[in-house]
Amino acid sequence: MQTAFTTFFRNNVVGMCINSNTLLTTSSFYSYLARQQVRHHANLSYNIQGLPLRYGASHSSYINRTAVSFKSLIGTRRISWSFKSKPRPQPTDSNGIPDGQEDLTKAAILEKVMKGRQPTDLMLRCTILDAEGNVKTISGHFKKSDLIAEHGLNARDLRKIDSQVPNLIPTILVRKEAILVNILHIRALVKADTVLLFDTYGSADSRLHSVFLYHLEHNLKLKGAGMAYEFRALESILLSVMSALEAEMVFIRNLVGGLLAELEDNIDHDRFKRLLHYSRRLVSFKNRAKLVEEALEEVLAQDEDMNAMYLSERRSDLDEPDHEELELLLESFSKQVEEIVTEAESIESNVQSTQEIVELILDSNRNALLALDLKVSIATMGIGTGALVAGLFGMNLTSHLEEHPYAFYLMTGFSGGAALIIAWAALHKYLESLPSKNYI
Prior knowledge:
Family: Belongs to the CorA metal ion transporter (MIT) (TC 1.A.35) family.
Radius of gyration: 43 Å
Membrane topology: Multi-pass membrane protein
Protein name: Magnesium transporter
GO molecular function, one term: magnesium ion transmembrane transporter activity
Order of helices and strands: HHEEEEHEEHEEEEHHHHHHH
GO cellular component, one term: mitochondrial inner membrane
């Protein structure tokens, strides 16, 4: 860069060499700068015997956001100057965003979203329980293609239970030979003699997953319970879901109840902020519980799906099964989820009522402060009236009252009386404007 700059000046400044002490008159140097200022676009700053000066000159093809400094002898005066280019402003659109920045941001977001949608990982990790209720495989890795071929699934079905694709909507899908369940922390594939539990994020070592696996093993081994294998597995799944919802409901209820009791005693910023946080958490929990209820209601509304869920009887080639047993099972859990949703709505209603009451209290306090400010302003106006009289006598003009023996006492009483009368009149007018004197 410096070589290009040196070549530029060697070709344009006659008799001047950067690395030599060639003599050049100051006037000719200024003339050269004047010519260069017309053709170029940056700033040239230089020093002549300690005196800082600036002159416009540059060549944008040689310098790009860089600075080059060097010294040379001109006549008998040493000149120190630097050449510094201005960065070119990036063009922006109507919203003030640099051109190309919006496209880059969209591309980055699209790439992040597509990472979860591309089949980059063809393996799934799952735990398998056999027909006797024993754990056959723990956290084994299986190919998606093998699972599809072995269990008669569609490729799109695995998206509902694939741990690499988070899905917040609970679903119960009925297929020809299996039932796919994706509810909260459980993602399972239930068959007539096998249960596959797919590992989800953070659930492999959690206490909730361990308790569910233990209960599932115990329930599948109860062959004399009078229920089919797949229904015993489905019962354990729904029971674990209900336990998770109830545990979270109790936790949120205790949090919100304790905070509402604290707000009855004292209202401060931290508690009000916690109330907002708990309110959001409560709404999120209520929505998840509603989605679970809707998933159960959707299955109950489809008689064909409930008939297809009798996998054991279909394998035995029996007549069309009566889905009364399954309907009672699903309705029982649906009613329990409905009770949880109702309780969550009740707590949410209490939170909203508390927020409204707190806002009313804060509004009342603000109005009290405004009323106090108005009263202080009225008192200030009355005092200002008395100060006006004192200011009139402070002009040092002859009024002949200074010779009167009682003039000072008379004017003091007059000023105080005027201040009191004006303040009382303004305050009386303010009190009449209020709907009731009980608010004062």
